[in-house]
Amino acid sequence: MAAYGATVVIQGSTFTGIIFGGPEVQGTGIYASDSHLTILDSRFYGLRATGNRGGALYTQGQTDLYVARTFFTGNRSADLGGAAYLEADSVVFDSCM
Questions:
Q1: Whole-structure pTM value
Q2: What is the mean pLDDT of the chain?
Q3: Which of 4, 43, 61, 88 is least enclosed, having the fewest CB within 10 Å?
Q4: To the nearest whole percent, how much of the chain has pLDDT over 90?
Q5: What is d(CA 48, CA 56) in angstroms, rounded to the nearest whole number?
Q6: What is the DSSP string of 30-64?
Q7: Are 4 and 27 within 8 A, CB to CB?
Q8: CA 92 to CA 70: how far, in whole Å?
C-alpha cells in the first residue's frame, strides 16, 4: 500500500509473505510520504524488500506515524530497516512487538 499526502488508518489487518524486488523498492507492506498514517491491531509477517529499505514499513517526508498493538516478525530488507525504515516528522510505537 502506498500513501502520498493522504490520511490513512489501517486497523486489524495482516500483511504476510510479500516480497518486492528491484533497486527502488521501499516499504514492502506500506510506503508513506507526506502523510498521516495510523496502524492499529495489525500484523506484519515475513515481508521482504530485496532491493532497498523497509521490509514491512517505510516512511519519509512530513509523515506522522502512530502504530499501536501491532506485531512485526520475520521482516527484512536488503539494505536498512528490516521491520521499518523511518524518515518521518513524528513516530510513535505503543505496545508493539
A1: 0.90
A2: 89
A3: 4
A4: 57
A5: 7
A6: EEEES-EEEEES-EEES-EESSSB-SSEEEESS-E
A7: no
A8: 12
